[in-house]
Amino acid sequence: MLDANWPDSWRGAFRIELRAEAIGLAWRGWPVLPGVDPAPLTDGDDLTWRRPVPAIDGWREQLGTHAHEVATWFSDRTHSLLVATGTVLDAIEVDDELGKRACRLLRALGHPAPIIALPNGRWLFLTTVADRVPAELASRAGIQWHGKGSYIPLPPSPFQHGVVHWRVKPEVCGWQLPDATEVHDVLVRALAGADAAQLVHTTAA
Fold first, then answer.
1. What's the CA gap between 130 and 146, in Å, rounded?
2. Segments in the chain forming alpha helices (H)
3. 201, pLDDT greater than 50
4. Residue limits of the DNA primase/polymerase bifunctional N-terminal domain (predicted)?
5. Measured between alpha carbons, how far is 80 from 69 in angstroms, rounded to an integer?
6. What is the pTM assigned to this prediction?
7. Nearest to 22 by CA among 93, 73, 92, 89
8. Cβ count within 10 A of residue 175
9. What percent of the chain has pLDDT over 90?
């Protein structure tokens, strides 16, 4: 998964960083998993765009594995870092244009959310677990809800053309995931083209 032209020292440092992130998140109760590259796509589906898949068969039975065991998953080779959704957290995946609008609205409200950026221009907004998403989001082909039975890549997982990174780190939110309903509402408003001033005025009223 790492560039074959990278020096061994770089690959080693990257492997150590991935392992440290996995252990730290597992200690916080996040259901992390090791990932590997999937088989090449044949239909060019941008929503699945060569993203990692769990390296463990029966990965659903491994959720909640202790951090000590998680450490062994990342000790022998460089894996992607995944987190399962639907138990501790959910994620809403959008394109970068909608992501930027929603991010501005969340900042204007003073309620930042952890946000991940993928190398293919997709953004992931992390939230608490939800039972459903609004119809305005569910009906849009470019928006994907990652809930129960799904998973997402976490920084600093490598992709073919870049590395997953944080746009807004969880530390900014004090590691408190924002309520899913609030983030969904902001995304719906961003879809409708509401600007930050409008949203703040409406909320204050």
1. 10
2. 8-27, 67-73, 96-109, 135-138, 180-191, 196-204
3. no
4. 22-181
5. 16
6. 0.85
7. 73
8. 11
9. 55
Whole-angstrom distance, CA of residue 86 vs CA of residue 92 = 12
> How many C-beta atoms surround the C-beta of residue 108 within 10 A?
16
Using alpha carbons, select from 37, 40, 47 the residue that is nearest to residue 159.
37
Q: At 71, is the secondary structure helix, strand, or coil?
A: helix
Q: What is the rounded distance in angstroms from the CA atom of residue 191 to the CA atom of residue 45?
A: 22
Q: What radius of gyration do the chain's Cα atoms show?
A: 17
Span 100-155, pLDDT tens digits: 999 999 999 988 899 999 988 999 999 999 999 999 999 998 999 999 999 999 99
pLDDT tens track for 40-84: 555 555 544 567 889 888 899 988 888 998 889 888 676 889 999
Q: Which tokens in the block code for residue 49?
A: 């765009």
Query: How many residues make up the chain in this entry?
Result: 205
The full DSSP string for 38-61 is -PPPSS--TTTTT--EESSTTGGG
β-pairing, 90-95 with 80-84?
Answer: unpaired
